Amino acid sequence: MTQDELKTMVGQAALAYVVPGELVGVGTGSTVNKFIDALGGMRAQIKGAVSSSVASTERLRAAGIAVFDCNEVGSLPVYIDGADEIDAQGCMIKGGGAALTREKIVAAQALQFVCIADQSKQVDVLGRFPLPVEVVPMAAQRLVRDFAQIGGQARLRMNGDQPLVTDNGQWLLDVSGLHIHDPKATEDRLSQWPGVLTVGIFAHQGAHVALLGTSQGVQKLTFDRA
Ligand code: 5RP
């Protein structure tokens, strides 16, 4: 199976977690796009969606699904999103698609996080994928130096010859060279650094369930998040 077929498979499998008559939280990325395409087929059965990015909002609306703002709604039964890496405890690195801040916000509003990904995203230790960190622009170069102090090589994410600007009007650093053995502690520590808006470690907002695409079918993992 191609990676695209694996993404389609887990996108469709995630429909089983959508609660009829309710809202669903929707992440961002190529795997989530497959989920949105599948969700279009059950749009009449749901109240609508809360979206984590401009790109997902546009795709949801094109599929005929109403999109609500976080502030208009209470808690969501489920949030469905992809990941760049996921470890054996359901902690993740996210933000490869630049949507980490809104993803974390919507995930925090949901009772359950269902991660959809292909099996290649599973890792023993987070950090092989460069860690995305959304930062306030005026802090970027100081944060590059601060990451160097802890062994990380931070690069400003570019869009052509300009810094990429997120949906929130901020910039992104991608930090390689980190071996994240204690995701919660690292998320806590980096989140305190002045100028950091969001760290792409999702340990506090980790996955409850992962649906991983394999050539043998969908592998389901469940995580104890107590
Ligand atoms: C976007 C994300 C995505 O979930 C992550 O990058 C995975 O994307 P894809 O499904 O395209 O591999 O965190 O900010």
Give a description of the structure.
With 226 residues, this protein is an alpha/beta fold. It folds into two domains: 3-122 and 204-222, Rossmann fold, CATH 3.40.50.1360; 131-199, 2-Layer Sandwich (Alpha-Beta Plaits), CATH 3.30.70.260. Helix content is 26%, strand content 27%. The chain contains six helices and 16 strands. A seven-stranded mixed sheet has the order 3-2-1-4-7-15-16. Strands 9-12-8-13 form a four-stranded antiparallel sheet. Strands 5-6-14 form a three-stranded antiparallel sheet, covered by helices on one side. Helix 1 packs across helix 2. The chain is globular and about 50 Å long. The model has no long low-confidence stretch (mean pLDDT 98). Bound molecules: ribulose-5-phosphate. Ribulose-5-phosphate binds at residues 27-31, 81-84, 94-100, 103.
Number of strands: 16
Secondary structure tally, helices: 6
Radius of gyration, rounded? 17 Å
H-E string: HEHEHEEEEHEEHEEEEHEEEE
CATH class bucket of the largest domain: Alpha Beta
State the CATH topology of the largest domain.
Answer: Rossmann fold
The order of strands across the largest sheet is 3-2-1-4-7-15-16
Model regions low in confidence, pLDDT < 50 over at least 5 residues: none
Helical amount among residues, as a percent range? 25-40%
Q: Main β-sheet: number of strands, strand sense, barrel status?
A: 7 strands, mixed
Based on CA inertia axes, which overall geometry fits? Answer: globular
Spell out which ligands are present.
ribulose-5-phosphate
Overall SS class = alpha/beta
